[in-house]
Specification:
The protein has about 450 residues and is of the alpha/beta class. The protein has 2 domains: about 50-325, Type I PLP-dependent aspartate aminotransferase-like (Major domain) (Aspartate Aminotransferase, domain 2, 3-Layer(aba) Sandwich), CATH 3.40.640.10; about 330-440, Aspartate Aminotransferase, domain 1. The protein contains 12 helices and 14 strands. Strands 2-10-9-8-5-3-4 form a 7-stranded mixed β-sheet, sandwiched between helices. Strands 11-12-14 form a 3-stranded antiparallel β-sheet. The chain has a two-stranded parallel ribbon with strand order 1-13. Strand 3 (about 105-110), helix 4 and strand 4 form a beta-alpha-beta unit. It is globular and about 70 Å long. The structure holds pyridoxal-5'-phosphate (PLP). Pyridoxal-5'-phosphate binds near residues 115 and 235.
Amino acid sequence: PDNNRAVNFGAGPSALPLSVLQKASTNILNFQNTGIGITELSHRSKEFTGLLADLEARIRKQLDVPPTHKIIFTQGGGTGQFSAVVYNLLARHRLLYPELGDDERRLEYVLTGSWSKRAMEEAKRLCASPRGVGGNARVVVDARAFSKDGKSFDNIPPHAEYQFSPYTAASLVHLRTRPPPPALIYYCENETVDGVQFSDDLESPQSFPFGLLFPPDSDNEERGGHRPLLPLVGDYSSSFMSRPIPRLADHAVIFAGAQKNLGPAGLTIVIVRQDCLVDADAAAKLGAAPIPLTFAYKTIADSNSVYNTPSVFAIYVAELVMKNIEREGGLARYEQVNRRKKQKLYGIVEEGEEAGVLRRKVQEGSESWMNVVFEVLGKDGLASKEAEQRFIDGASQKGMLGLKGHRSVGGIRASIYNAITEDNVESLVVYTTEFIQAEKD
Ligand code: PLP
């Protein structure tokens, strides 16, 4: 390990590149010879304004974000966005379809793991009371129904199982045609706790079923080639900047906390399509719930993400990380490297499985590239807390930390975000090989 640093396989906040941490540590004392440390720098200073613009430009370039979408920076994490998307997209729906009843303002959730479940529960909570936000949150598909044990999130369901409400695409042109589109369609691209992820290959049955949401191209031609502006929301917290985002332009909102691949906790990135930057007060006059200002996308966008004091330090580090990504060949290269990393790791889990020592938790085709989850088996062939502790302790002695699974599901979780190198993964593979051998003997 460099500088006596361990290799951090934790799920987040997670490892950052050493060169970034070294640079940040000197700039904490004196940022670019201003005489002021980065954590003390005014968010109205020209230095910070430059940093923020640079961060935005680099994210835009790497993810190929089109001009139809704004990139905004805020706080409150992924959890803050569970609430913010509900408020903002219900306000948008209210402005588009003022005549509808609350029941017709559908918020459609795809459940593939703990985080999408939490987001759905928050939507239900916000909708619930008579003084709620005025929407109807429902589940489109629950992956647990397709699991091996009937209760775990271990898969991405096949496309035929998604029960999106039918809508008339033409209603986007002729606003009064029914049924109208939902207010929000929600999915979590990578489930950090459960280790399942949508495939980025859109032909795969485990990819997000965009095709079911959008009308056939012939309908688009009738409408002058315009695709409907659907309110599709993706939580990319734990896969942001690990590989390109398929069909990014078709999303209304993509959000991510920075603390996996991009920087320290405290910074939340939101990519918002312009039609979702709605006037909260105009919507409130029509009966929508007023949006707390720090959640209102339009307020944040109109002020270039400095409506109130942003997380200056986290933004600074994220900008360093983005520069590092570009220096190392950009997202296209990260995609290749991350693919090799996960193949290596799943490869050794498979060997462990054949040896009767390890057991994968996720069904084939749904494996996360970022969070590799498995169990360690005892002599009886069942998952064993003692055997798992042996695995964790042995790894820890070799300077590899953060391998314990999430407290809600147990097992082992190796998070292999961008800052984990191929060499780091190789060390884990070598250790795991030795562990399998020792357990077998
Ligand atoms: N969504 C996903 C996929 C996550 O992994 C997390 C946190 O790990 C969250 C949302 C919640 O993010 P935060 O802790 O930033 O609120």
